[in-house]
Amino acid sequence: MRLKIVTPEKIILDVETKGVFVKAIDGELGVLPGHIPLMTALDIGVAHYITEENLTEFISIIGGTFKIENDEVTILTEAAELGEDIDQTRAEQAVDRARAKLKGMLEQSVDKHSPEMEAARLSVLKAIARIKAANKTHKR
Ligand code: ATP
């Protein structure tokens, strides 16, 4: 089975795999070779796949779409980072920054559904996914 992860800027990954596991918006999804065609939306989270050598590789995925067809998985996403490429300090700083922003907005009684609040919440979720993917990679 083939796994391709594509962002608007580049191809993040194009490899053979024995299984792909992602966080879809309606729950965890795992596909093995021979899976029937399927398409779904992805949540922000950590995905993993099994290499031909039976290693597990972790990737942070910032939402997008997941498709499997003819034994080929395609993930189209705004951003994705391979565990080993993640700058953990940067992600930790991003989470701190976004949390401080959220706190400031809550103190100023900014509308919880405002675009600024949504953007800060999104930044927290993105950074947490990156930290988790980096941690899982280092613990292998
Ligand atoms: P930051 O606030 O740290 O810049 P961000 O959430 O604003 O993070 P994005 O706009 O989601 O960053 O991503 C911009 C680019 O930087 C993308 O190519 C993404 O893959 C990459 N990127 C973001 N954070 C990290 C990280 N911690 N480690 C490695 N690459 C990252």
What key phrases describe this protein's structure?
140 residues; alpha+beta; 8-stranded mixed β-sheet; globular
Structure commentary:
This protein is α+β, with helices and mostly antiparallel strands and 140 residues long. The protein has helices spanning 88-107, 115-138, and strands at 2-6, 11-16, 19-24, 27-31, 38-50, 56-69, 72-76, 80-82. It contains 2 helices and 8 strands. Strands 1, 2, 3, 4, 5, 6, 7 and 8 form an 8-stranded mixed beta sheet that branches. A hairpin with a 2-residue loop joins strand 6 and strand 7. Helix 1 (88-107) packs antiparallel against helix 2 (115-138). The longest helix is centred in the C-terminal third of the chain and has 24 residues, at 115-138. Adenosine-5'-triphosphate binds next to helix 1 and helix 2.
